[in-house]
Amino acid sequence: MIVQLKSESLSKSDFSGEITGVIFFSLGSFQFPEQGWDDFAVTIMGWWLRALIDLKTGASEEEKLLYMDGAFSVMVEKRSTSICCLHFIKGDTQVLKTMDLYPLSDLADSFLSTAQQLYSACLDHQWISDDIDLLKERIEQLSGLYPDLGECQT
């Protein structure tokens, strides 16, 4: 799996209601931004799902997956209807790693699996928010675009 989520790390701020937790990309020995990276998991997963939906539907050919904390992003460039290139970027321009010819369906599978894990953890904690509702909606949208990846667990 390319996106790692540590469900046991999730917590909800009493002040803002934001849900944070450990979420990062893992490609063999390469972790991005780093192993154990803590960020606003529900918010960024919602953004990332929206980006993948736009790539799959042809609304865009390139999407920047942002983190809320730190100056890190992943640029996803669609090379064909089924292949993309991933650039792992620190700051504005420093490319730390590039993965060319990565199957878009594999990225969607990882995102969906992680998003469903995240959504289930939120339900287990009985957390309610607009961001969680949006996460569920985007899981359903992306699942509809990739019916062969398994049934939506929301």
Automatic annotation (TrEMBL):
The superkingdom of the source organism is Bacteria
This chain belongs to which protein, by name?
A: Uncharacterized protein
Name the species this protein comes from: Endozoicomonas numazuensis
